[in-house]
Design brief:
Helix content is about 30%, strand content about 20%. With about 120 residues, the chain is an alpha+beta fold. Helix 1 packs across helix 3 and helix 2 crosses helix 3. The C terminus is likely disordered.
Length: about 120
Amino acid sequence: MEPTAWDFQNQLMAILNAARQSGQSYVDVESGNLHKEVAGYPNPNHRMPVCCEVMRKLMRAGDSVLKETMSGQGATLTIRYTVEVASYPLTTSSREFRSPFQSGDQGSLVLLCRT
């Protein structure tokens, strides 16, 4: 089964939350490694463009692209995400997180994250 944007997003959020909980101020994520964790990489049915799109859509103020290929969708795309409490507050009692893949207000995907 091919990985979806949702699969990449969930794994990336887990990486960001783990880094924040361990006291890191930032974490560097490479697209090839993220893809490998979600669905293996390399493989003939890879979804690297989707993986890179998710990585870019989850960027916030303070995050930066450290490395990218000409296409912007290669396995070496590396993004530094800041993971301070204010940047990714997904572990406080009950927070709303709107998916960056929603389109408009109707049919929006909302996750409630509890710890």
